[in-house]
Amino acid sequence: MTVNKRKRSARFRGSRMHGRGIKKGRGAGNRGGRGLAGTGKRAAQKKPSILTTYGNAYFGKHGFNRPEKSIVKVKTINLDELSRFNTLEIDLTAKGYDKLLGSGIVRKPYRIKVASYSKKAKEKIEKAHGAIE
């Protein structure tokens, strides 16, 4: 049967020296880290013991970085933004837009040149006696 062993810090609570005989050994302040902390990969005096324990797998970079997906951004414009162009004939591709979307109200018969458009945008422009190329 296994016995739960209390932590050293709990067992020595109340004793002046915490079993070390010196003041430094009381807390975690003099530990220098846990596990392989401070091995540093360049500490020559520690390399032999690391190599025997972990082998060459301890040193160097591991794994790979996942490249970000190259997302193609489509620059869009809505129908209600067409009023800022003061003409009825608008070349949206020349102005840097890729797609015309159908949000908004069309009050003028615009003639628009654009690479792609939504179904609703086409309906609204044709309803206002305009055209899309």
Explain this structure to me?
- The chain contains 3 helices and 6 strands.
- 11% of the residues are buried.
- The model has no long low-confidence stretch (mean pLDDT 84).
- It has a domain at 76-132: Ribosomal Protein L15, Chain: K, domain 2, CATH 3.100.10.10.
- It starts with 7 loop residues before the first helix and ends with a strand.
- Strands 1-3-5 form a 3-stranded parallel sheet. A 3-stranded parallel sheet has the order 2-4-6, with helices on one face.
- It has helices spanning 8-11, 47-54, 119-127, and strands spanning 76-78, 89-91, 99-101, 111-113, 116-117, 131-132.
- It is 16% helix and 12% strand.
- With 133 residues, it is an alpha/beta fold.
- It is elongated.
Short description:
The chain is an alpha/beta fold and 133 residues long. The protein contains three helices and six strands. The radius of gyration is 36 Å and the shape is elongated.
Assign the CATH architecture of the domain at 76-132.
Answer: Ribosomal Protein L15, Chain: K, domain 2
- Output the strand order for the largest sheet: 1-3-5
First-to-last CA distance: 84 Å
What would you call the shape?
elongated
Helical stretch tally: 3
- Any idea of the CATH topology of the domain at 76-132? Ribosomal Protein L15, Chain: K, domain 2
List low-pLDDT spans.
Answer: none
Helix content: 10-25%
| Secondary-structure element pattern, one letter each | HHEEEEEHE
Rg over CA atoms, rounded to whole Å, is 36 Å
- Look at the helices and sheets and give the structural class: alpha/beta
